[in-house]
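INFO batch 0412 | record 1 of 1 | parsing
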Amino acid sequence: MALSRHKALILCTVFIYVMAVLGKASLVDTEQPVYFQHQRRALANPPIPASSQRLQNASSVNAAENLVTAAIVKQGAYNKHRVANPRRNAYKSKTSSSAAHLIELDAQGPAAPNLTDELRAAAALLAERDAAEQLANGTLHKSYAQFAKLPRPFLNIYNDDENKKSRSLLEDRATSNSSYWVAQLSENGRPSMGYDTSYPVYRDVTNPMFGGGAKGDGVTDDTAAINAAIAYGGNCGENCLSSSVKGTLIYFPPGTYLISTPINAYYYSQLVGDANDIPIIKTSASFIGLGAIQSDVYIPNDNGNEWYVEQSNFYRQVRNFVIDISDTTTANAAGLHWQVGQATSVTNVAISASQASGDGNTQMGMYTENGSGGFMSDVTIVGGAYGIYGGNQQYTVRNFQIIEQTTACICLIWDWGWTWSGLYLSTAPIGISLINPQGSAGGGAITGSTYVMDSQFFDLTVGLDAAFNKTILESSIITLDNIDLNAVQTVVTYANGDVLEGIPTTGIDFVVIGNVENDGSNFGQFEASVPDRPSGLVNSVIYDRPLYYTKSRPQYETLSSSSIISVKDHGAVGDGVTDDTAAINSALALATTENLIYFPAGSYIVTSTIIVPAHTRMTGSVWSQLVASGSYFADAASPKVMLQVGNSGDVGTVEISDMLFTSIGPLPGLILVEWNVQAASQGSVGIWDAHFRIGGAYGTKLQVAQCPASSPIQAGCIAAAMMLHITPEANGYFENVWAWVADHDIDDAQNTQITVAVARGILIESSGPNWLYGTASEHSILYQYNFANTSNTFAGMIQTESPYYQFTEATESPGPFNSSVGMYSGDPIFPDSTCNGTALLCNFAWAVLMQGTTNLTIAGAGLYSWYDNYIETCVDTQNCQQRLVYDDGNNGGLHLWNLVTIGSVEMISDYSGDAILAKPNTQAS
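INFO prediction complete | emitting tokens
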């Protein structure tokens, strides 16, 4: 669904099929060796393989080969079934027939091999044998020339010929042997909220205290050591759905890490490689598994159940790695098996898969099977049958380069809404496929909404290959916005061989393919006349139009430890008990744009407003927590801010990353963050991978014991007035930011649902420019997003959920915040006479309010209402609430593209009571 005002243009969801076309020439000349620094050191001083009596024993090796060969065949059959039958999310309730069908498919499939100690040891033995042979014949260290010669070279990699260097600025820095500060300063972190102080947050995988220590020498199998480091101390793995206190930073120093079974990335974990000399994770030929790194683990013989719940598999990072699976022989293996929810990211990662031709190449760079993401950026994938294969509820992907696949760069087998920005797809038969090649497998899943923007398609036989019929068109949509085409033979084809006529082969300005409602339904291609993007929102690069500005999460690779100011050096404790307000202010007083204010892992109690100067760069570790506490924030009639970023009128540079903003107890007058600063230059102020959480965690006093799922709302669970306020004179860049009022208790063994009340989610009053990439806001009682008198703002895939506890008179909006309605610009009024439903359906939290906006573009929105008073069956009948999106009629230059709603009677509602209904636009599945 898409809305363009004032022309009343409504576009509904599209679905696209793919044909496999074989054969492509190599994109790059790989004659010149290209190595990372640690590879060069290893080449100069080769490691000595560990002697093994078992390697000298032919019978031991033969026994291992027999065991592993059988396991690889069994794992391949399981992988094939898993890929053909993804455990996708369902539009229907968990008790519906479609959900039951997915469980049935799992039960019918082949079982994965049981990874016994004996099998793991056998796989490791063969991995070390093969690595020793590669070391002897000079093939152990692979040249990654492809990564260096792409349009956006992968960082910190350079040619072996010192006279022919062609390096980016960051690549030059890599030659300085400078160490990454994270390895030097992370050890003094502590668990959240004063949890067990003996629990190590920071784990260097080479440290012998963690299972013996990985070697990173490329010839020693490091699987057991890496997984031991992750699991150490009773970390949240099997039989632990989630935890707010067992966060870990798993650090990989430079090196090549050989693995023979998957690395299990636990809940609330960050897997971080050295940003200056990026480590390589290399799967062996004897690798047994689906993904080299997996974010969840299927439980053997348990009908497809996993360690975690994919929609609530929160708080994950994987950054700064090369993942090389090219040697692996197991069918349908992937670099990443990524099943995650919000507050997750994959950044600065390169995946090298097999470049073998033909049907025998079944590898995938990433298998994104399911979940409710999520954000990924700055990823390069070379080789495989597919670069990305799978689906997710919603996702934002930015700055991906995917090249040299044998089938398709991207194959989305299901989704509700994805926004892709800055793709470079090249040297493959198909750029993007939007259908499950397994046909009706996977519960008949089809792709919903796909928005591709500011991207390049180069040297492809087909850009998009789609099945095209009326049924699909009524349920899906694809939007192509500012696409550069070069050597693309056919832009869009269909499974029956037809070609979509009229699309230029050199570039696309703006095209929608699908169901268009514009004075009646139409099907097929629709070219929209969209205005120029506001100058403040774009950069200097032009395809058909200038590209939207983007900025990657800063990692401060070149800073030395002497340029980093730890708040602990100024007296902060971070134990969830000590008042750290004064210590934090003391550290911030020293902030400049040349240094970095660092919060080691922990929970820092804040009892009054902290003001961040307009010349501050600050970061945390494992989402270091700023925790509002005390009576200062308790007065609903006089709200107070915990973190005030600048003062009104300030202009400067502010960067915030890897932080979590939260609270303790009932604080109805709390505003977590107020953003006042304006950028001194484009993109100089922003937030990256920092999140908001109210309740549902250890130490918050807003858990299941205090705030059970009940009506009415308990007085002790009225928790905050607002999460994020971007004020009229401010602007900013916001990427991978999740504002969550907890719907369940993360630290409860069953993740039991809770009732916590917060008035407002994110209020944006800014005149811009503003960028929101991969943001989400959930469960506030008045609204999730309020664009009030907002100008010059771009939002790429926003996501919301309504509170689960509404649909009773005691919990209807505005609930306990009735006396404060009108205190902030654009506060909605309840009840509202323009609503067409019952009072209980109408007095519900808004997902998005658009009031008096100018030049607001929303490129993808997934807005969901799942429950009525914790009962899910309303999803099946699409009447959990009446309305989600409000247009007050005073908006100019408003574009809402690829809107996906669930559980609401109306998709878009305006000031007059007119509405676009959801039911006619429901996906067929």
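INFO post-check: Confidence is low (pLDDT under 50) at residues 1-30, 158-176.
INFO record closed
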